[in-house]
Amino acid sequence: MEQKTVSVWVRLEPFLLGALPTPPPAKFSMHYLRKMSTYVRTRAKDGCFPRIYWPMWKHIACGKLQLPAELAWVYFEAFDMLTEKSVEDRLEWAEAASQCTSQEELDQLRHKLSVDTLQFLLFLYIQQLNRVSLRTSLIGEEWPSPRTRSPSPEIESKSSLQNKNWDDQAHLTFVQTHLFDLLELVLDPDQLSSSGHHVQDSLLSTEALCGLSFLLEGSVSKGRSVHPLHELLLWAPLQSQAGFSKLSQAFSVRKLQGWLRDTLTINPFGTTACFKTGKKLAWVQQIEGKIKRAKIARNTHNAPAGSRVVIISQVYKQTLAKDSEKLIGASVKLHRCNESFIYLLSPMRSVIIEKCWNSTIVLGPVQTTVHVQNCQDVKVVCVTGKISVCASSFCTFHVLTPTRPLLLAGNEALTLAPYHTHYPALEDHMAIIGLAVVPNVWDQPLCLGADGIENPSTPVYSLLSPSDFYEFVVPFEMEGDTSEIPGGLPPLYQKALIDRKQKVHTWQKMVKEAQLSKEQRKQFKAVVEQKFHEWLCETGQKQQLDSLIPPSTISKQAAG
């Protein structure tokens, strides 16, 4: 087998979904993660290795790395969300969590949760993706103390405005630059020198190679069959190239590092390849004139699970509505969509909404995360495993989520509200990806800044007033049995709807009892219709109603 036929690339999901789009804690440097790598192996019997349980991570994060417990859980939960689990396991966990009546009971439930230790170490390291500089805290005390100061918030917060999570070139550059550190993190302690670095003849076990498969996968024969790194290196011709020793049943770190540098390439299923070679979709009507044409591309026809991508860009003044197999299990990016109404009514893996303005976006259930960044005047309606918001203003989020919403740096005037819609296939879609209606903590956000958890002096969010709450109607017919909002509404919001309906009923009764003449009824109807038309125009609802009319119908009306 020729070496040139082998390609290894960086997996999309760890960076896309795993790297939180915010500057990491200063203690996530290599110096401290290397110490953690040694520490967990010495405490294997205490629930640290080969899987680390929540209590031990909490002990390390809070006692050694000086992180608040809430922030420690954010990272642990984010990694756990990436791991493969059956729908049954996800729903079982949701049911157990919903039955907890106190924080103590919830903590006891979390004590049962564990993740792969080596992969979790790599997960913590790649949080550096969204840091401006990696020069901080490389040399320091044995374990950081509360006196240790973090880098300047002004410096760190800038990185949170530059989303690298979808940039597959940035992922490749990161791994190429820090390959030495990544290999050291998964090495057994007895393969390190007294200073904690690997030596010339260090050996990497097959167990450690499985850890690296969290970040790397590859193929031969130009990507026809994709394998995790450890499976790829089961093939004898590749083992000799990568430095495998039959005697020690391990890989030479020096040779493996050289082989990886020679074979690492851009992800053939990443966003760059999606736009270059992916299939284009004509999901929106193109508007003539100087307005940029909408761009929609996908790689779902040939990408493996975890790398399926749909990119929707530059939708302008239109309604885009899709319930498509092409969206199922895909990571979707909505980019620069303005003054539009977008309905993506399929179960998806993840969604990012970036640089969108004055739009309403209604999503089907999202298994992992919805991330909103650099948006203004956007309304997002979703059921999701997690939602995070960064550098956005005057946006409203109607959310059903089992995890606390993450409000990152640069936000202003956000509004959080309960999920307020349904469509016929909604509950079926939720069941497909393992999302339940409880627990639902849409109203318990966590504000994260450059220095961790914040309580800003000027609140960046508010809860929607019940008096401003309305149900949202999805204006499309679909097959399915869902006929009401899953999980119902919080009592205050339900009462507001009942009170409003009562006012409408009272008004209708008053009109009926007024005993208007035929001419008066005609005049009254004209006034109401005029006011309603003015309201449609002022609120932008007319644009949405007009865009729901099929183009062929508009043409016939114009011809008539």
Structure report:
The protein has 560 residues and is of the alpha/beta class. The chain contains 20 helices and 25 strands. The strands form 4 sheets. It has a 16-stranded mixed β-sheet that branches. Strand 5 and strand 6 (227-228) form a beta hairpin. The longest helix is centred in the C-terminal third of the chain and has 23 residues, at 491-513. The radius of gyration is 26 Å and the shape is elongated. The termini are far apart. The relative contact order is 0.10. Residues 134-161 and 553-560 have low confidence and may be disordered.
How does the SSE layout of this entry go?
Elements: E1 7-10, H1 12-18, H2 30-42, E2 51-53, H3 54-64, H4 69-82, H5 87-98, H6 103-110, E3 114-116, H7 117-125, H8 153-157, H9 168-177, H10 179-186, E4 203-205, H11 206-212, E5 216-219, E6 227-228, H12 229-232, H13 236-241, E7 244-245, E8 250-252, H14 253-263, E9 264-265, H15 271-277, E10 279-280, E11 295-298, E12 309-313, E13 319-322, E14 331-335, E15 341-344, E16 350-354, E17 357-363, E18 366-373, E19 376-390, E20 396-400, E21 406-407, E22 414-418, H16 426-433, E23 446-449, E24 452-453, E25 461-463, H17 491-513, H18 518-539, H19 541-547, H20 551-559
Parallel strand pairs: 1-9, 12-14, 13-15, 14-16, 15-17, 16-18, 17-19, 18-19, 19-20, 19-21, 20-22, 21-23, 22-25
Antiparallel strand pairs: 1-5, 2-3, 4-8, 5-6, 7-8, 10-11, 11-12, 23-24
Organism: Polypterus senegalus (Senegal bichir)
InterPro entries: C-CAP_CF_C-like (IPR017901), CAP/MinC_C (IPR016098), CAP_C_sf (IPR036223), CARP_motif (IPR006599), TBCC1 (IPR039589), Tubulin-bd_cofactor_C_dom (IPR012945)
Subcellular location: Cytoplasm, Cytoskeleton, Microtubule organizing center, Centrosome; Cytoplasm, Cytoskeleton, Spindle pole
